[in-house]
Amino acid sequence: MREGTRKLLAACKREVPSLEAAKSLLTSHARVLTYMAELQRRKTEECLDKLSVDEDGRGHLKPCLAKVSISDIRIPLMWKNADHIMNKGDHNRYAVFCLLKVGTEIYDTELHMNIDRTACDVTFEEVFTFDKVKPDFNFILEVYSYNLHKDLTIASTPQKNPQKTQLHRIGQKD
């Protein structure tokens, strides 16, 4: 799947299909890395379970697993006063999506397009359910963005030299 998505990404000439392909590639790459880490963790746990047996020959009790649901994700946006309140500054528009991770389960939200300085927040209304969650779980929410238009006009025109689609994790420096 990753190889097919790479080929699709290389062949894309338009921005929206290119973003969707980059999002799919990022999500599948995250899943592969997570599955590899989980396989390693299970092998390590299997070896440790063989060594950890009580004096009377019984194993340890394992904690119960839970089901965790996440819904209505709302991400407030912070703009400079000149951009948001005074309606001055740049006219950049962004595409935004999130990756949600618990254990080996990874979900991605829909891709929100054309987020600009008029938006106060980004809301994802999907419901995500994680099954068989351990008591000591870690929840990771990664927010990715892509600057759609880097021009200074409201009515944007297509770029003559399209750039490579590169998604940026929020908080990540270039």
From TrEMBL:
This is Putative rhotekin isoform X4. InterPro entries: AHD, Cytokinesis/Rho-signaling. PANTHER family: ANILLIN/RHOTEKIN RTKN, PH DOMAIN-CONTAINING PROTEIN. GO terms for cellular component: actomyosin contractile ring. It comes from Stichopus japonicus. Residues 64-165 form the Anillin homology domain. GO terms for biological process: actomyosin contractile ring assembly; mitotic cytokinesis; septin ring organization.
